[in-house]
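User: Here's a chain of 330 residues. Predict its fold as tokens.
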Amino acid sequence: MKLTNISYYNSYQLYQNNKNTPGFSGYKSKFSKELDNVIKNNTVKTDDIRNLSKLLNKFWNRPEAKVRVLGSGTHGTVYKIDDEYVIKVPNSGSDYFYFEDLPKQKFQGLKTYYGEVIANFTYGKILKNVSQNGSHMQAGIPDKMISAGLRNEDIKDYYLNTYLARLAKLPQRAYDAIASDFDKLNKTGKGYENYTFDFKNPNNFVLVGKRIRITDLIGKTTIKNANSTAEMLSILLEKTHINQFAQFEKDAIQPRREIFNKIVLASMKYNLDLGTYPTDKIIWKTIINDLCGIKTSYQEVLSTLLKYQKEVNQASQRLKLTKNYLDSLS
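Assistant: Prediction complete.
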């Protein structure tokens, strides 16, 4: 039986996303136009520093700037400047921003990644806006929903009937795209210097239209192939928020199975590491046997998928075998 939808959070989200925000797509502020010109010229003059600092502080000092929150986490809070850019400010806040530099774009080849810093200011970092007019849905349960003090049953209703339902309806290509970026980021590292997306908070993964985009800073790790299938399963299905985890719900079995299948197919397409650490195996068990209600043991599922990866080099054949196997699970 489907839980009753709650309108309170929908109204709250609409208010937070749209209050004092231009009601049309493609809005670009004077600050963004100035920043685009500086980036295009690939040089920063004294006048550019002065103008960019002045325009950003003018935005920040407007009364509505502080309510244009798009998300928050352990590294800071993100505020929408316009449809082009956002600013990430430390949780300690800031009274004044002064332009510092345009950092080198190291991860431009990642198609779904929106967390790379475009420009550095004192106490602020400029990033690409992950979506227009704030029309996006963070994976899991949004920070602002938890901080709003909603009842547990309302939060549960949102997670099951809004988030999981929308995630399940995303096309396979949305999952393929992030799996491709997982693969690319894994291949960027060398030896003991490797890179990983931030998997601490599911809110770092954002549903935009029929796509999934990734935010927050990419970190360094000594672990090779850290962007694994187990991490994708955890961030989209196991975690609901930082250090909070999903519970079994009979009504959620179907959407979770759909999401699980799409994640595994995307991972097998790019031959992602399935997860070799003991903690990874716990994730697989939780997803397969606990949340998805699959009776086949997670060990058997992992063993079969590993066999396909080792023995079937052709991606199309590997995907066909994987799909048939997933459909046979009970």
